[in-house]
Amino acid sequence: MSRKIKGYTLGAIAAASYGTNPLFTLPLYAEGISPDSVLFFRYLFALPILAIMLKSRGRSFAVSFADILPLAILGIVFAMSSLTLFQSYNYMDAGIASTILFVYPIMVALIMALFFHEKLTIQTVVCLLMAVGGIGLLYKNENGATLSLMGTLLVFASSLSYAIYIVSINQTRLRDMATLKVTFYVILFGWLMFVCRTLAAGGIQTPPADKPWLWCCLVALALMPTAISLLCTTGAIQYIGSTPTAILGALEPVTAVFFGVTVFHESLTPRIILGFILIISAVSIVVAGGNITRHLTRFRKMFPKLKRTKSKE
Description:
Elements: H1 3-18, H2 21-30, H3 35-56, H4 65-88, H5 94-101, H6 104-115, H7 122-139, H8 149-171, H9 179-200, H10 214-240, H11 242-247, H12 251-262, H13 270-288, H14 293-296
């Protein structure tokens, strides 16, 4: 198998595995488990997986005192992105939510233009208009019914939070830290936020005793959209580079829509399909432009080759 085929295969698996969020989340919601409790376990189960990945590369867990505050802030921002997305599933179809979430690369481009003086190209403006048009098609269907305003606002909050997270990593002292280490501590501080939220809400909800298979959904959330997606993204970038890997990210909403329609019987109309195509095309064109790819993917630094001499990290 050639390097290109391996790269595209890994990139497709990475994006598709991340798109399985609704597949493992909605059955838990059906049993009355709250988004906070779902994310509490997702983050908790992801921590040892990330720790093993980090240790297997011979990396140290040590961070400087000056890094703790920015890591804690990023952990909260990242956790809020997860929380608002998972909350939106209670207000709209998960496939539509995942598609609207996918506009985050455009938000990254806008943030960089507004606050860091990067050039806002005509291409980006046109793609922004395409994305807005696509969202407009998703927001109102042929029958005149509209999406939940609360659900839409939650998805936009999730997308914006994730865009802020991406920009912050690249614009702070954390940009020189291995991505896997950043991810571990971001998940750790995010989990601590969910500990506080679940305790304040009266305690952590667990799957009912007569449905132990729901624990598999919680473990799968830590494995599929987290560990497997992370590892495959790393491999894809090594084989084909950041830009093709980022474009393959379009399979994230495709996967979410697929499971939403086939498993959870969500609607899929020509209007929704057109809106979906507009959003995916707009984001892919922005990413392919290359101006923001370096802000979207830092995974090339995740598994840096270690020198034979002992690292002091």
